[in-house]
Amino acid sequence: MLARQYSCGAILFLSALLYFEVGASPLTAQSTVTLDMLLIHASDRPAALDTRLDRVEFRLRRIFGFEHYGFLQQQRTLMTLPTSTRLQLVTGHVVQIQAERRDGRIRAHIEWFEKRERLLATSITQRRGVPAILGGPPHDEGSLILVLEFE
Amino acid sequence: MNADKARQWMSRAMDGELSSRRKQKLNRWLEAHPEEQGLMHQWRQAAICLRTTVSNSPSPDTPERAWAVIRAQLPASPATPWGWWRPGSARLAWSAAFAAAAFLAMVAWWQARGPILPSVAIAAEDQTEVEWVESDVAGAMPVVYTDADTGLTVIWVSFDDERGEADPHAG
Predict the structure, then answer these.
(1) Is A102 on the interface with B (CB under 8 A)?
(2) Are residues A56 and A3 in the same domain?
(3) By the CB < 8 Å criterion, does B80 face chain A?
(4) What's the domain count of chain A?
(5) Distance from A112 to chain B by nearest Cα, in Å?
(6) Do A44 and A109 share a domain, yes or no?
(7) Residue-by-residue pLDDT tens, chain A, 151 positions
(8) Is the dihedral of CA B115, B117, B121, B124 positive or negative?
(9) Which one in A19, B65, B101, B153 has a CA-CA gap of 20 to 30 Å to B111?
(10) What is the distance between the alpha carbons of residues A131 and A121, in angstroms, rounded to a whole number?
(11) Do A132 and A103 belong together in one domain?
(12) In chain B, what are the domain boundaries?
């Protein structure tokens, strides 16, 4: 009886795992990917360390020269390629991404808007699991950094 | 034939599974062993009694009739028809709570995951390729930079001072 109880829980757990990992698993359809987005505020204003950036800050410090990096937003989006998605940033900006599969990689056309003004537009081709870093738009006495990664 | 073997044959004879040749042999053996013959008689009586009891119920010659017989014998409101997973069961509640907690943990874990900047250099063939970069902002200067240590590609747009917080920290 107890075994049946645990079996039921285990089945539900594994089902959830399968559902959420569907975009990351190499066994699933190649056209399904998960887009990870991380928005960071970089500035020279003195501030406490943000523990939410523990996994990325040490790298950012070596790439950029800002004194402080603050977590602003993180979002995961499941995408079935080819598709387009619209990320609404907490800063009021909008990032529009059109992505498609090309030669085993992902080609993405990215546009970063402030209101109707296009601050940054680029076209990149990247592998799954390799993040791209976009940035520069000014915000609150600093700059915004956007880390995008397809899984 | 010993007694054990004889009882096996007696059992098979009761079930109608003993061949006629062995049946004759068994009968001859039983004639020589009256105590075993008495046992065989008791078995036959028990079988008759059982058959009489069963025959009071209609013979279910089809699956539907068999199920009708079974259903008729079921109590109207069985006390524990569902076992541990019956509605309202404490175990069901614990199982549901466990499943819900596992599901929420999965959601939290999935949401918490995010990009991790690599600690080792990305191979050149795996690095991000940038086709073009542009900005509609007057005076903005796009820059593409590949970090030598990590192989990460940075796409940066520097804005002039009039726009506000332009910063040449990139690279």
Answers:
(1) no
(2) no
(3) no
(4) 2
(5) 9
(6) yes
(7) 555 555 555 555 655 555 555 444 444 445 899 999 999 999 988 877 788 888 788 888 888 888 899 999 999 999 999 999 999 999 999 999 999 998 889 999 999 999 999 999 999 999 998 899 999 999 988 999 999 999 8
(8) positive
(9) B153
(10) 17
(11) yes
(12) 3-73, 124-163
